[in-house]
Amino acid sequence: LAKTTQPISMDSYEGQEVNITCSHNNIATNDYITWYQQFPSQGPRFIIQGYKTKVTNEVASLFIPADRKSSTLSLPRVSLSDTAVYYCLVGEGSGGYQKVTFGTGTKLQVIP
Amino acid sequence: DTAVSQTPKYLVTQMGNDKSIKCEQNLGHDTMYWYKQDSKKFLKIMFSYNNKELIINETVPNRFSPKSPDKAHLNLHINSLELGDSAVYFCASSRIGTSGGGETQYFGPGTRLLVL
């Protein structure tokens, strides 16, 4: 399984753009890159997923370079409610069955 | 309607007891999972079921036994509870995709288990 490495924690002021980078040097051809957000006392929640290049949705953008050995989650203009742990993971699937490994996550603290 | 629900939300019990955690999803998904999140917040997959069939079984003590009566339910039974079993247990579900690893997992709210 591809292992992921991401910063343990980050601080940001409200209104700033936050970029969280994740390394996954051993990513396999079939692996997708997925980011989840977890608030205290809640289950992880899907944010965004991509395979290559750039993906954008209403919440975030995901930048994936051509070699796919890393990815960057970009959160535009964060607010206090974005304080959470953000997990980067790659999923190995065989016939659609997922076996994903959650890393340590990045604890984002948004400061007023 | 809650997509993935778990009961109970909190579970406090004595060492040596047997307990069960129930999970239900109303998303029509084929695959369900159990994860354990310890005090250091590491989230580890324990089991995965697809259409009531065990697909993934990580290195988990035999005291943990998942049961899937139908594809909408995946229960977790734990025998002879130990102090180290204290953690938050999350249930999740996903569709079966046609490509590898590309399906979003939907998580339940978690069950906080405390073994005394």
Could you write a compact summary of the structure shown?
The complex is a heterodimer of chains A (112) and B (116). By secondary structure, chain A is mainly β. Chain A is built from no helices and ten strands.
The tally of beta strands of chain A, per DSSP, is 10
Kindly state the percentage of residues in helix of chain A: under 10%
User: What number of structural domains do the residues of chain B give?
Assistant: 1
Which class best fits the helix and strand makeup of chain B? mainly beta
Strand fraction of chain A equals over 45%
Percentage of residues assigned to helices of chain B? under 10%
N-to-C terminal Cα separation of chain A, in Å?
Answer: 38 Å
How many distinct helices of chain B?
0
CATH architectural type of chain A: Sandwich
CATH class of chain A: Mainly Beta
Which H/E pattern describes the elements of chain B?
Answer: EEEEEEEEEEE
Q: Roughly what is the average pLDDT of chain A, rounded to an integer?
A: 88
Low-confidence segments of chain B, given as residue ranges, are none
User: In the residues of chain A, how many domains can be counted?
Assistant: 1
Can you say what the CATH homologous superfamily of chain A is? Immunoglobulins
Predict the CATH topology of chain A: Immunoglobulin-like
**Order of helix and strand elements from N to C terminus of chain A:** EEEEEEEEEE
Protein model, in words:
The complex is a heterodimer of chains A (112) and B (116). Chain A is an all-beta fold and 112 residues long. Chain A has a single domain (9-111), classed as Immunoglobulins (Immunoglobulin-like, Sandwich), CATH 2.60.40.10. Chain A is built from no helices and 10 strands. Chain A has strands at 9-13, 18-23, 32-38, 45-50, 53-56, 61-64, 70-75, 84-94, 97-100, 106-111. Chain A is globular. The mean pLDDT of chain A is 88. Chain B has one domain (4-98, 106-115): Sandwich (Immunoglobulin-like). Chain B is built from no helices and 11 strands. Chain B has strands at 4-7, 10-13, 19-25, 31-37, 43-50, 53-57, 64-70, 73-78, 87-94, 106-107, 111-115. In chain B, the strands form 2 sheets. In chain B, strands 2, 4, 5, 6, 9, 10 and 11 form a 7-stranded mixed beta sheet that branches. In chain B, strand 4 and strand 5 form a beta hairpin. At the A-B interface, strand 3, strand 4, strand 8 and strand 9 of A face strand 4, strand 5, strand 9 and strand 10 of B.
